Task: structure prediction
Amino acid sequence: MTRVESNFAPASLLAGERGHSARCRRHVAGGLLRDSCLLWKTFGRRPSSRRSCPATCPRSPAFTLIELIVVIAIIIILAGLVLSTVGYVQKKGARSRAETEIAAMSAACESYKADNGIYVRGPATAMTVGSTTISANVTDSLDAKANGDPTSATYGQTSLYLYTQLSGDLTGNQQGTGKSYFTFKPQMLSVDTSGYVTGIKDAFGNSYGYSTANQANSANGYNPTFDLWSTAGLTANPGTPDTITPQWIKNW
Result:
């Protein structure tokens, strides 16, 4: 019997080859996908394959609405902390400056008394300094227990009179002609548009208070010598109970 050779492979063999080919294609495709992701990481190029990248592929950075709100809230909180700190430092610096100036002017008043036998008090009659008229006995009329508004005319007049007596400048043009007991820095003086001094201002921009009210009436004022103070930016009058003057910077 003659054996006839067949040109067709067995079905089982063909099935095996097809399975092997499919595995090869999947392997090649996976390799291409990995290579394309590597290109993305290295050169910033997006993979050419339309298939989605595995979890190891980088994603485009983006913020959600909640993340943006959280960031903005943190910025607002930090800004508030910075502003409050700056305000506290400025206020503390102003108080320190006022304390130093009050101590220096008080020492000058003692030197004035050593030469004249009395503390600065008056004037006995009204006097004009520059563009300001100072009422008679104005230092006796300002009572620290009742008047806490440094923007009032009485504050300005008493501090101006104190300036004239300690600086020796009786005309207010910042050119002393008499004996000087204290050298006022420009930042301590309130000056009008004509260049005349109108008062002594504290670190808060208001007039210092100067009073000899206790000498005139022991029920008024605090010191039997003189009262010298800064309201530390406050403008309210002392009440009962007094919660205002404890916040002042003063010599009593």
User: Anything to note?
Assistant: Residues 29-60 form one domain. The two ends are 140 Å apart (CA to CA).
